[in-house]
Amino acid sequence: MSGFEAAIAVERIDEGRYEAVLDDGYVIGEALNGGYLMAVLARAAVDASPHEHPISTAATFLRPGRPGPAQLVVDTRKQGRTAATALVSLVQEDRSVVEALITTGTLDAAVQPDWAGPAPDPAVPPLADCTDFRAEKQDAEGFAGRVDMRFDRTTMGWLDGRPSGTPDSRAWFRLRDGHEPDAYSLAVAVDALPPVALNLGTRGWAPTVELTWHMRAVPAPGWLALHGGGRLMSHGWFDEEVEVWDSTGRLVAQSRQIARVGRG
Question: 202, 253 in Cβ contact below 8 A?
Fold first, then answer.
């Protein structure tokens, strides 16, 4: 079992009820990364389902998740031959932290995409032209110690106080422990980029309020390419969309979230 597999492990204790120990290696600041929490939720949903993959996840983040013990409650709403749906709640100290409506299904890894026109280009520069801005050492603490990300330099000007003015972020992604891409690492990938609002001059932690992501294909081994963008920042809120592409050039995940502007 890889480090990531252990970090998202859940133990079934009763029908629709699970326990987990949330890993402090996925902390950003003082809170656990939302993508990591969605991976734990997906693990419980799939365990309770006859299907293999979390096809659609609509997660609402009610409060920050903390490392340590947690409970998961899976309330199955439908089980069919091609899809099952459940409301999954992650609970700490008797309070819901995240609630997600998760639809599971089974994807065929051999199926090729059928585009209406030319396949889109993720527009992420070659890996050799990207930079690890978060951690140069493999033993870095927190989220940067668990994920290896190489960023498009043109989307990271906010680090030097020179935001680009365009809500874009692009990077390559993989887990540092060698765990190859799967449904659960895709959940982390869709929420791994820095908030695109940073390039509009905001600062500080930008908490996600709701995030919906779709698994579109079974990812091939290797690096994942991430392309994030947004359209509007208004009244203290901003949107962000992320596409995830695998090493063969297939679109394997899509997400959209609404978040609060950082208060740095």
Answer: no
> What's the pLDDT score for residue 264?
62
Answer whether 177's CB lies under 8 Å from 2's CB.
yes
The angle formed by the CA atoms of residues 55, 207 and 53, to the nearest 5 degrees, is 10
| Three-class SS state of 249 | coil
Q: Would you say 124 and 226 are in contact if contact means Cβ atoms under 8 Å apart?
A: yes
Tell me the whole-structure pTM to 2 decimals.
0.95
What are the residues facing 242 on neighbouring strands?
A: 228, 255
The Cα 205–Cα 198 span in angstroms is 10
Cβ(19)–Cβ(71) below 8 Å = yes
**Residue 22: how many other CB atoms lie within 10 Å:** 22
CA dist., res. 72 & res. 184, Å (int): 16
pLDDT of residue 218: 97
CA distance 163 to 196: 10
Question: Could you give the CA distance from residue 121 to residue 191 in angstroms, rounded to a whole number?
Answer: 20
| Chain length of the chain | 264
Separation CA 13–CA 20 (nearest Å): 10
Question: Could you tell me if residue 164 is left (phi over 0), alpha (psi between -120 and 50 degrees) or otherwise beta?
Answer: alpha
Q: H or E element: which one contains 143?
A: helix 143-146
pLDDT per residue over 204-246, tens digit each?
A: 889 999 999 999 999 999 999 999 999 999 999 999 999 999 9
Instruction: Confirm if 193 and 223 have CB atoms less than 8 A apart.
Output: no
Degrees to nearest 5, angle at CA 252 with 246 and 258: 120
